[in-house]
Amino acid sequence: MIEPKNHLILALDVIGIERAAKVAQLTAEYIDAIKIHWPVILERGLHGVRGLAELAPVIVDAKLSDIPSTNRVACEIMRCSGASGVICQGFAGEDSVRACVEAGGDVYVLVEMSHPGSLQFISKHSEEIARMARNVGASGIVAPANRPEKLASYREIVGPSMQILCPGIGIQGGNPGDAVAMGADFEIVGRAICSAKDPGLAAKEIAQAIASKVRR
Amino acid sequence: MIEPKNHLILALDVIGIERAAKVAQLTAEYIDAIKIHWPVILERGLHGVRGLAELAPVIVDAKLSDIPSTNRVACEIMRCSGASGVICQGFAGEDSVRACVEAGGDVYVLVEMSHPGSLQFISKHSEEIARMARNVGASGIVAPANRPEKLASYREIVGPSMQILCPGIGIQGGNPGDAVAMGADFEIVGRAICSAKDPGLAAKEIAQAIASKVRR
Predict the structure, then answer these.
(1) Which residue of chain B has the CA closest to A38?
(2) A97: distance to nearest CA of chain B, Å?
C-alpha cells in the first residue's frame, strides 16, 4: 500500500523515459507515487521503471483487462521490473482481477473513469465493481475526481482500509484537494504538473492545496 | 484490413521477443496476421514489431481502455512502430474507441471475451458494443470462438464488410474452423501453436482444419 503523505500521485503523462525521469526527479519531494501509462510503456517496455522506483513507488496504469492467465503474467513481469502496483479494469470480471491480486503487489481496480464514454457502460456497474474489488482483496479502487459526489458511497462499499485513488484533477475538471476532502486517499495529477513550465513548483502548489483540505 | 487468406491469426503468446520472432518465422506461411500482447510489449515496448511486420501484419492486443486522449497517443505510437492494427475494449465507451479509429490503422473492438468473467459485465453489453463499433467505423470486432452461437447475430449487426476475429480456439475450448464456419473471418490461435513442439506444423494443421470448413 502506498503511504499517503502528500495524498498526491504523479501521473507521468510524458513521452520519452528520459523526460519522464526528469519530471519525476523534480517532483519527487511532493508526491507519494508515480503512475506510468501506455505512451511510456510502449516506448521501451518497463525499462526505466527501476530508476523511477528509486524516487517513489511506481504504479503501472495498464488498465489491464485481459483474461486471467494474461493478467497474471503481465502483473508478474511488472513486479519483476520494479513496479509496486498495477491498475486493472474491474469490468473484465472477478477472475481477471483476482489473477492480478494473486500475482502480488498492489492492485487498484478502476470502477469508473473521467471521460464521457465511461457513462455508457462502466459507470452503470461501478458500485458492483467496487464490491467485487473489496471481495477479491484489492488494495484499492480508482474513481474519477470529477464525480466527487460518488466518493462517499464508494468509501462505504470498500471500507476504511482500502485506498481510493482519484484521477481527473486539473485539466480534466477537478480542483486539487476536493477529492481528498470528500474522502479519497490520493489525487492523481498528470498534465497540470507534467505540462507546467516548472513541474516541481506545480507539484508543490498542488500538494499544498491538497494539504489545506485534508480532514484531520 | 487484413487479407483473409488462411483465416488464421497467430497470437504470439510468448515471452521474449527473440523466441516470439522465431515462432513467427516458423508459422508465417500459414497465418494472415500476428497478434502481440502484454507480456511481449512489457519486455521492450514495441521494439521488434517492425521485424515481425516483415512476416505478417502486426496487431497490438493492448485491449486499450483508456480515456480518448491516451488511446489516441497509444495508437499513434503503435502505428509509428510498424503495427497495422490495435485491439481496444469497447467497454471504455464510444469516445475512447473513436479516438483509436481517428488515429488511423485497423481498429478491432472487443465485444466479448472467452473467460468466465466476461459474462459478469462485458457480455451484458456485447451487442450494443458491436453496434457502436460499426457506427464509429472500426475495422472489425473481436468475439470469442467458444460462444459460436452468437457469431451470427454479431454478423447481422456489423454487416458483411467488417471483420470478425475469434480467439478462444484450442486450449480455451473451440475447435479450429468452427468459428469461420459460423461466419467469422479469422480465428486467433495462441498456445496451441506457440506451445507446440513444432509450431510451424501446428499452424499448418490448424490452417488446413480451418480451410476444410470455410464456406465457399
Answers:
(1) B74
(2) 9
Helices (H) and strands (E) in chain B, counts: 10, 8
Question: What span, in angstroms and rounded, lies between the C-alpha atoms of B25 and B13?
Answer: 14
| CB spacing of B129 vs A113 below 8 angstroms | no
Under 8 Å between Cβ of B109 and B126: no
pLDDT tens-place string over residues A39-77: 888 887 888 899 999 999 999 999 999 999 999 999 999
Q: What is the pLDDT of residues A119-149, one digit of tens each?
A: 999 999 999 999 999 999 999 999 998 777 7
Which of A90, A96, A129 has its CB closest to that of B115? Answer: A96
Determine how many CB atoms are found less than 10 A away from the CB of residue B156.
Answer: 11
Question: Using N-to-C axis directions, what is the helix angle for B94-102 and B126-135, rounded to 10°?
Answer: 40
Go through B34-61 and write b for each residue having 16 or more CB atoms within 10 A of its CB, e for each that does not: bbbbbbbbbbbbbbbbeebbebbbbbbb
CA-based angle B166:B186:A96, to the nearest 5? Answer: 25
Residue A63: what residue type?
K
Q: How many residues does chain A have?
A: 216
pLDDT at residue A48, rounded to an integer: 87
- Chain B residue with minimum CA distance to A39: B74
ipTM value of the model? 0.94
Distance from CA of A46 to the nearest CA of B (A): 6
Chain A residues in contact with B42 by the CB 8 A cut-off are 41, 45-46, 74, 77-78, 81
Delineate the domains of chain A, giving CATH numbers in brackets.
Answer: 8-211 (3.20.20.70)
Host H or E run for residue B37 = strand B33-37
Q: Which residues of A fall within a CB distance of 8 Å from B92? A: 113, 117-118, 121-122
Q: Which one of B63, B150, B197, B213 is the catalytic residue?
A: B63
Reduced to 3 states (helix: H, G, I; strand: E, B; else coil), residue A188 is strand
Judge contact between A5 and B2, C-beta under 8 A.
no
In the residue annotation, B197 being an active-site residue is answered as: no
Distance CA A69, CA A92 (A): 13
β-strand A33-37 against A8-11: which pairing, if any? parallel
Contact B56, B87 (CB under 8 A): no
CA angle A148, A150, A151 (to 5 degrees): 70
**What residues of chain B lie within 8 A of the CB of A117, using their CB?**
68, 92-97
Q: Provide CB contacts within 8 A for A33, sequence distance 6+.
A: A2, A9, A10, A56, A57, A58, A59, A84, A85, A186
